[in-house]
């Protein structure tokens, strides 16, 4: 996985602070409606990827 689309449905379900660890996912594109996060695959492989529970 290289990118994660985070739009109104995801924001409504998970809130606006789903990705707490900036080393695992950083905004690659953002506008008023959506954010597309660029995923750092090596951070995931090192188990640095964390999210809050829905």
UniProtKB/TrEMBL annotation:
Protein name from the UniProt record: Uncharacterized protein
Naturally occurring in which organism (per UniProt): Halorientalis persicus
């Amino acid at each position: 996985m290289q990118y994660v689309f985070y739009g109104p449905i995801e924001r409504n379900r998970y809130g606006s602070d789903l990705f707490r660890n900036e080393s695992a996912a950083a905004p690659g594109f953002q506008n008023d409606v959506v954010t597309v996060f660029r995923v750092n695959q090596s951070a995931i492989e090192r188990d640095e990827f964390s999210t809050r529970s829905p």
